[in-house]
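Board notes (copied after class):
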Amino acid sequence: MGLFSAARQGRKDDAELGKGLWRRAHDRFTRGLDRYHQVLEGVEDEALYAELLEIANELSTLSGRVRQVCVEAQRRAPSEGLDIPGSLAGVHRALSTAGNSLATTAEAAAMLRLAVGPVPAGAESVRRRAASVLEQVNDAEHRLAESAATD
């Protein structure tokens, strides 16, 4: 991404996500996804790489969904600071947990990458952690929808 396109994206993010809580939740998820891809670059075993790549693709599809949740949350409860709005506290908690789970998914992938010899279970530990990320993103979307129904 060039200098000008990065600046343009930053302005778009500021407009859609604000500079507070929702922006931080989105950026944390994005950093976790970037970290997972960085780990993937160092995998030498082709079979393991293929498994981890499939998981990476699944996680990448969640990025757009996380952005949509954060944009909608910013629209409903604009945030320029770190105060969590009571009506969307569950949404924030689910997004925060998803970001943390994504970080542990990247960590699990890194541990597999560093394993000596064949890995008997393949990427099963990474797949389990990635499944929890999906559950938490689903939870954030569900909580956001519930919040809209009560407003």
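Comment from the instructor: The longest helix spans residues 46-76. The chain is about 80% helix and 0% strand.
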